[in-house]
Amino acid sequence: MIDRFPYGKAPFWLLALALASTLSVFLLRQRATETRPDLIFALFAPNHLPAYRRVTPVFEREHHVRVALELVHQRALQTRLQNALLAGTEVPDLVEIPEGSLSFFTRGPLEDVGFVDLTARLDAEGHRQHLVNSRLSLWSSRGHVFALPHDVHPVMLMYRADLVEGLGIDVETLKTWDDFAAAGRKVVRDLDGDGVPDRYMIDLPSAASWGLLLLMRQRGLDLFDDAGHVVFNDPRTVDTMVWYLRQSYGKDRIAYECGWGQSLMKAMIDGLALFYIAPDWRTFVTEQDVPSLAGKMKVTPLPAWEPGGRRTSVWGGTGLAITKSSKHVDLAWQFAKSLYFNQAELGRRFLDTNIIPPFRDAWNLPEFKHPNRYFSNQPIGALYAARAAETPPAWTNAYSTLAEGKLGEAFLRASAHFRAHGEAGLRELIQTELDAAESYVKSVMARNVLARR
Length: 453
Known about the structure:
Blueprint: H1 9-35, E1 39-43, H2 49-63, E2 67-71, H3 74-87, E3 94-98, H4 102-105, H5 119-124, E4 140-141, E5 144-145, E6 148-149, E7 155-160, H6 161-166, H7 177-187, E8 200-203, H8 209-218, H9 235-248, E9 255-256, H10 261-270, E10 273-279, H11 280-289, E11 297-301, E12 318-322, H12 329-340, H13 343-353, H14 380-388, H15 400-421, H16 426-446
Parallel strand pairs: 1-2, 1-3, 8-9, 8-10
Antiparallel strand pairs: 3-12, 4-5, 6-12, 7-10, 7-11
Helix pairs in contact: 9-16, 15-16
């Protein structure tokens, strides 16, 4: 046969190799298709994995299917998924994504969003009435819900109860932020005489915008509203910035930025700051990272901005989306519900993470009333759940990152002015900066004609 091939031996073997390779690829793809699980679920949070591994075998037995759980780095999950959706290549059936990620997938027309619109399913099956409705804001675009909320993440203050009580501070009297600041000015002290304070009232970031945005949301402010309009340029934003600057700089400051990781741990152990911003998830991180403070910590609601006002905010979030290209969308929906709406499992999951689920029915489970030894036997599940229902929405869209960045720039310029000139002309400067930030964000948004469809 080789001798009769008209182009010679070398071309013959090249052709044979090409045919063999093509056949091998075909067989491998066929085998992969035959062995592919019915559902593939990609997630980025390692602390979620144990709970999902408990639920998955039960779901597999009940539905006679196979489900694969794949742990992927957060950045890789977002970028690869985004690229795969654009290219039309294979993607997981379900994905768990962090706060802010939805904006990367909703930049164009609604019909081009690569996730299944869950709005009708939530309403038709009556799930919305069982959820903290404000948490759907993170996972909605133009009135359509594209992911289920995994959590609520209400914010309280955790504090060194041994030091606070030793100083005679009654946290029950700290009802407003003005009350808190007044008490804080009595707390800040140089304890060793070197001219540098060794004790502050609270840990607040002096430059990062997350602290400011968290307090703005407590006041009912946000970057955008539910319709996607820019709304951060508000007189209350000016007031919030001025208050924040007073606490962070100057002779009357009560705040210190303790940082993250080891610097934060040492600050907590040393009592450098007495109070710490604490969404539910941060209490568990603190338990794990600073075990020596067990029995010395407690939590208390945020002070309100005005008497009788909201005493919590939100920080962070995770959502579960189903990809449109999944061949088993209905099965994926059933699996999503088994992960997020399984009431008995949510109780155990709280004990593993301290995270409050948005599924209200779970809050009455005994696990949420369990005394937590680390937090001086407070039932922190019940305390956080009591605040969960009043958490503010956190609307997100394709320009949230841009808007937060511009708000941060305005804050940094305001802080530079405050350090140099005090409050003289401060409010006017902040308003000018907010006007410029709003104008810039609106101009960028106006360029995206596709998002209007």
